[in-house]
């Protein structure tokens, strides 16, 4: 795996945003993953959406070409260190984003996200820069 896809890009793929569909299709299919946190965030949107059945069908299609990475004790320990460091510097971000970052760091993945402002606060986290 090479890339961890953040929730914003998954939502854009699900809604058919052309540039995101093209981007994700251009990245190596065997190199894509999402965090279990993203999985939960997407399902939250599915359950409160207008057409949950159709949305879930589309999400399952997406899941055919990405791995879903679980949380582990090591990821949770990294999360705790990151959160503590961010708190100490007054740069806290949401726990969900911190967990996604910890997952990317643990697996040495580049994070594909538009939320550059939050994730840039995390040292050593590699962010995908769209061309």
Assign the CATH superfamily: 5'-nuclease
Question: What is the mean predicted local confidence, pLDDT?
Answer: 95
Kindly state the number of beta strands. Answer: 4
CATH class assignment: Alpha Beta
Q: Characterize the main sheet.
A: 4 strands, parallel
Percent helix: 55-70%
Structural class from helices and strands?
Answer: alpha/beta
Short description:
This protein has 131 residues and is an alpha/beta fold. Helices cover 56% and strands 10% of the residues.
List keywords for this structure.
131 residues, alpha/beta, Rossmann fold, four-stranded parallel sheet, 4 strands, 10% strand
What does this entry look like structurally?
The protein is α/β, with parallel strands linked by helices and 131 residues long. It has a single domain (3-119), classed as Rossmann fold (3-Layer(aba) Sandwich), CATH 3.40.50. Helices cover 56% and strands 10% of the residues. Strands 3-2-1-4 form a 4-stranded parallel beta sheet. Helix 3 (36-47) runs antiparallel to helix 4. The protein is globular and about 45 Å long. It starts with a strand and ends in a 12-residue tail after the last helix. 28% of the residues are buried.
């Amino acid at each position: 795996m090479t890339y961890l896809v953040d929730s914003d890009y998954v939502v854009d793929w699900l809604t058919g945003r052309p540039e995101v569909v093209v981007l994700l299709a251009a990245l190596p299919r065997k190199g894509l993953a999402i965090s279990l946190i993203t999985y939960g965030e997407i399902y939250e949107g599915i359950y409160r959406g207008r057409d949950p059945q159709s949305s879930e069908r589309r999400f399952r299609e997406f899941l055919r070409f990405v791995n879903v990475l679980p949380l582990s004790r090591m990821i949770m320990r990294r999360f705790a260190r990151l959160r503590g460091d961010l708190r100490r510097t007054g740069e806290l971000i949401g726990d969900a984003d911190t967990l996604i970052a910890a997952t990317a760091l643990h697996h040495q993945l580049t994070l594909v996200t538009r939320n550059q402002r939050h994730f840039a606060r995390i040292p050593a986290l590699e962010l995908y820069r769209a061309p």
